[in-house]
Amino acid sequence: MHKTANSICFLTYNYRKMQSQDMQNAVERLMLKNRRFFDSYTYTVPSSEHYPFQWLWDSCFHAIILSHIDTTLAREEIRSLLARPLANGLVPHIIYWKKGYETLKWGREYEGDVLTKAWGTDGVSSITQPPLIASALWELHTRAPDIGFLHELYPRIRDHYLCLLTERNFSAHGLMGIINPDESGEDNSPRFDSLQGLPSRHSPKQNLHRRIDRVREHAKCGFDVQNCTRLHFWIEDVSFNAISLRALEALSLIANEIGEKQDSDVFSLCAQQIRTSMQLYMKSGYRYYSLQGETQERIIVDTWGLFMPLYAGLLHKEEATLLVERHLLNSKQFFTNFPIPSVSCTEKSFTGDDLWRGPTWIAINWFVYKGLKLYGFNDVAETIRQKTIRLLTQSGFREYYDAHTGEGHGAHNFTWGGLVLDMN
Question: Whole-structure pTM over 0.90, yes or no?
Answer without folding.
Answer: yes
